[in-house]
Amino acid sequence: MSDSLYPVSEAWARTARVDAAGYEKLYGRSIADPGSFWLEQAKRLQWMKRPEVAGDWSFEEDDFHIRWFADGKLNVAANCIDRHLASRGGDIAILWEPDEPSEEPRRYTYRQLHEEVCRFANVLKGEGVQKGDRVTLYMPMIPEAAFALLACARIGAIHSVVFGGFSPEALAGRITDCDSTVVITANEGRRGGKRVPLKANVDAAAGHTRCLQKVIVVQATGGAVDMKPGRDVWYHEAAAKVSAECPAEPMGAEDPLFILYTSGSTGKPKGVLHSSAGYLLWASYTHELVFDYRPGQVYWCAADIGWVTGHSYIVYGPLANGATTLMFEGVPNWPDASRIWQVVDRHQVEILYTAPTALRALMKEGDAYVAKTSRKSLRLLGTVGEPINPEAWRWYHEVVGEGRCPIVDTWWQTETGGQMITPLPGATALKPGSATLPLPGVDPQIVDTEGNVLHGATEGNLVIAKSWPGQMRTVWGDHDRFFQTYFTIYKGKYFTGDGCRRDEDGYYWITGRVDDVINVSGHRMGTAEVESALVLHPKVAEAAVVGMPHDIKGQGIYAYVTLNAHVVADEALRKELRDWVRAEIGPIATPDALQFAPGLPKTRSGKIMRRILRKIAEGDVSSLGDTSTLADPAVVDDLVANRVG
Ligand code: WTA
């Protein structure tokens, strides 16, 4: 942690949309009179019917509901495209940088985007997709992924994007959970010079689902794939036959826009459901305030569309604001560790938003890769996804930004729809490692384990006391799970799952998850999911998974595995089990360390004591605490003696 202060520069304070006094005023109003504050903010969207009410919500069990602008009507795609046509139809909406640096970038104006999205929407309609249907996307980072999202929004279909790095099994589970009849994919994806067999993975997934009827395949590379007659459709063939005009469906403000699966502390991934109006408003409001976005600036969020960051800050937020959003197909370290900075120079990027894990990986390669590029166009830097260590923060600030660019360290979650606690570049003095202060409209509290609200400088668990428009509305198909997961631990409040410290200046410092979720390279992984994958292996009797510190990834995955009787524990089996998890879930779930454990530390009632497993994984074996309540205290000695790594 660090307490050095980086004040707002005079130039930023003078020119930014919101300065320090402006922030105080906005924040005060948002809390004192949320109704008028949010109806005012709602004017940033184009409505087919303007709403007369803002928030209507209760987090209490007997009256649990969350609605925003419920009497309003709009279309999200029309907000992201059509309304810009008259004023900036010729401006670049999507700027696409291919994986292969020698290839030409592609550029789509808002007018071209309109045509592409209408065509895609008509193809979906032609395949029978109707308002309210679920459409799964399993796509590489190509412009067609954005077209497909917006096409769903245009006709009122609910999209569910599954990250292209997930396995066929994981994909099948997500298709089945929301009963998707249509999958949109590409023949192949490209990442860092390698090919990803997306269509083949869909074929494998299809065998595990019953609902899937149509697969729409975008031809992204020259790679050949099998097409199943009657089920599979080449996108370019279908698109050639349809009109480039498609009316935007009027949608209720509360109609679902999308589902995005995310890991929780128990069970299988949850389908986080977001609304149309509240979500879009939040994405647009935060994108404009936090990045101080001005039309004409090139803005780059280097995330993947498979995660919420890609939804809110590559597609919906920037396009709602008429921005030029850069979409990057590749990876930061290919062909070499200079790629990000070369892309910045090539496209004169002014705002860059990325993850601490990428910065740590690039920092390790040395400053020369950065120094050989100009980066003069950069004016603002951002981070998201995990806490940023002060060392990486300073490197970003000094080496990448040459001390010139403020850093917005944005704390938020899939569930929150968009940024929640973050500096505003013209308003907030920065402290490396702190997400600083809540945005206007966000009411965070720190509570102790009993739920008592803690005041002043303190540490505890982070809850949000009031609803905000971008809040998720339910878990797809399981409203009770939504309530139970987020609103029962601290009654009447939304529980984030994060620990948090607040310092004497009122700044928030997120300390990481306090539940059984680990944050691997900024991606959420539920320990229960990895455990379920491990115990599916015929040689495994039991497994327990915890997080461990990792220099680059932030957290790594540490698995303890108890084998069935008479199975020999050797290096070959260790590799087999790691590969097994990789195949079951995807590369991001591969355990970094796997320890064979003859027994796991359990209480007499059979509950695994994860606290002890975490300590051992961290290498902190001197403070294991009280182990006397264990059914068999001797297992701990074995675990300590055979720790890996
Ligand atoms: C963590 C990603 C510290 C946090 C947008 C949260 C952060 C989880 C930050 C959500 C940050 C995200 N500082 N921690 N700036 N941003 N987190 O749903 O633990 O993939 O609960 O959303 O990431 O991850 P998710």
Automatic annotation (TrEMBL):
Post-translational modification (record): Acetylated. Deacetylation by the SIR2-homolog deacetylase activates the enzyme.
Positions where N6-acetyllysine occurs in the chain: K607
Residues annotated as signal peptide: none
InterPro entries xrefs: Ac_CoA_lig, ACAS_N, AMP-bd_C, AMP-bd_C_sf, AMP-binding_CS, AMP-dep_synth/lig_dom, ANL_N_sf
Residues annotated for CoA binding in this entry: R191, G192, G193, K194, T309, N333, S521, R582
Binding sites annotated in the UniProt record for Mg(2+): V535, H537, V540
Domain (AMP-dependent synthetase/ligase): residue spans on this chain: 83-467
Keywords: Acetylation, ATP-binding, Ligase, Magnesium, Metal-binding, Nucleotide-binding
Chain residues that bind ATP: G385, E386, P387, D409, T410, W411, W412, Q413, T414, D498, R513, R524
Keyword Acetylation: yes
Cofactor(s) listed in the protein's UniProt record: Mg(2+)
One MF term in the entry's GO annotations: acetate-CoA ligase activity
Domain AMP-binding enzyme C-terminal: 529-607
Gene3D superfamilies from the UniProt entry: 3.30.300.30, N-terminal domain of ligase-like
Reactions catalysed: acetate + ATP + CoA = acetyl-CoA + AMP + diphosphate
Domain Acetyl-coenzyme A synthetase N-terminal: 23-80
Entry EC no(s): 6.2.1.1
Family per similarity comment: Belongs to the ATP-dependent AMP-binding enzyme family.
Function: Catalyzes the conversion of acetate into acetyl-CoA (AcCoA), an essential intermediate at the junction of anabolic and catabolic pathways. AcsA undergoes a two-step reaction. In the first half reaction, AcsA combines acetate with ATP to form acetyl-adenylate (AcAMP) intermediate. In the second half reaction, it can then transfer the acetyl group from AcAMP to the sulfhydryl group of CoA, forming the product AcCoA.
Name of protein: Acetyl-coenzyme A synthetase
Organism whose genome encodes this protein: Sphingomonas agrestis
